[in-house]
From TrEMBL:
It is a multi-pass membrane protein. CDD domains: TM_PBP1_transp_AraH_like (cd06579). It comes from the Bacteria. It is found in: Cell membrane. The chain crosses the membrane at residues 23-44, 56-75, 95-115, 127-146, 166-186, 215-234, 296-314. One of its GO terms (cellular component) is plasma membrane. This is ABC transporter permease. Keywords: Cell membrane, Membrane, Transmembrane, Transmembrane helix.
């Protein structure tokens, strides 16, 4: 084999890996849809599409905040616990009205995010350690505030959980609106450019005079707020507050959606469109396994395989 042939082979491999990282998530969604159309009874129905969209909304919202954290060369493992804390606060303050309860729940998520960001930006704790600590503390606080499941009986929350506009559920509209807003911030604002610069090289960003600490704190506050919003809409959909189980393993789903969507764990890049597609991929994968009577544990195994494949593709691309 000549040197020219070897070089062409390497170029072809690099091109395939680049296409896999950039567009693999969209191809995966298309393949899963095709498989379900052929093999899954009643998959092509308005009710099924509505169900899938409603179920993916919380994952999508949490993944948006996770994408910002990963883009800054960090990670947020506390998102599931923030969802649990938000459902506890929502239930406790619902007597003051749904809007007050939602506001308190979101503020609770922001406080957790502020704690994460402060530990990372000012004390220098590694993101995985800081957010792991808040993951444990947040879930514990949620259970202290609300030790057991509690029904949520409020007309406003019922409307949020089951209402729609032109057949599109409110939960889906909220998720889409937040995705558009986050995409705009990342692509079109100074904050977004600063975030990507910090993720690409934090020392270089500091030397350039960028407000590294402020940006990192905002990133984790936003991540906490988005996780709290996800907890609120999940509670509205389920009509119950359950801090014991709500948000469990949500960090895994969010990280999977972000990484599969093309945002590298090394930071410096955020792909919101890919993150949304990644969340849809995870939901379709879960639904496919459930509809074909496979146990839930297979979903976790499948997610792990998808993560390894996505990280491998990103690693191979980074070598070139």
């Amino acid at each position: 084999m000549t040197e020219l042939t070897l070089r062409r082979s390497e170029l072809d491999r690099a091109r395939v890996l680049r296409l896999l990282q950039d567009y693999g998530v969209y191809a995966g969604v298309a393949v899963l849809i095709l498989v379900n159309v052929v093999l899954t009874p009643n998959f092509v129905s308005g009710e099924n599409f509505r169900t899938q969209a409603v179920q993916v909304a919380p994952v999508m919202i949490v993944a948006l905040g996770m994408a910002l954290a990963i883009g800054s060369q960090g990670i947020d493992l506390s998102v599931g616990s923030v969802m649990a804390l938000s459902t506890s606060l929502l239930s406790l303050y619902l007597g003051y009205g749904p809007w007050i309860a939602v506001l308190v729940a979101v503020i609770g998520g922001m406080v957790i995010g502020l704690a994460n960001g402060s530990l990372i930006a000012f004390i220098g704790v590694q993101p995985i350690v800081a957010t792991l600590a808040l993951m444990v503390a947040g879930r514990g606080l949620a259970l202290v505030l609300l030790p057991q499941l509690k029904d949520v009986r409020d007309p406003g929350m019922a409307t949020l959980g089951s209402g729609s506009v032109l057949g599109i559920p409110y939960l889906v509209l909220i998720a889409v609106a937040l995705a558009i807003a986050v995409a705009f911030v990342v692509r079109r604002t100074t904050f977004g450019r600063q975030l990507l610069a910090i993720g690409d090289s934090r020392p270089a960003a500091q030397l350039a005079g960028l407000p590294v600490r402020r940006v990192l704190i905002i990133v984790y506050v936003v991540s906490g707020a988005l996780a709290a919003v996800a907890g609120v809409i999940a509670t509205a959909r389920l009509t119950a507050s359950d801090p014991t189980s709500l948000g469990t393993l949500m960090e895994l789903s969010a990280i999977t959606a972000v990484v599969v969507g093309g945002t590298p764990l090394s930071g410096g890049r955020v792909r919101i469109g890919g993150t949304v597609a990644g969340a849809v991929l995870i939901q379709l994968l879960t639904a496919t396994l459930i509809k074909h009577d496979l146990p839930p544990s297979w979903t976790q195994i499948a997610q792990a395989v998808v993560i390894v494949a996505a990280v491998y593709a990103a690693r191979e691309r980074g070598k070139r």
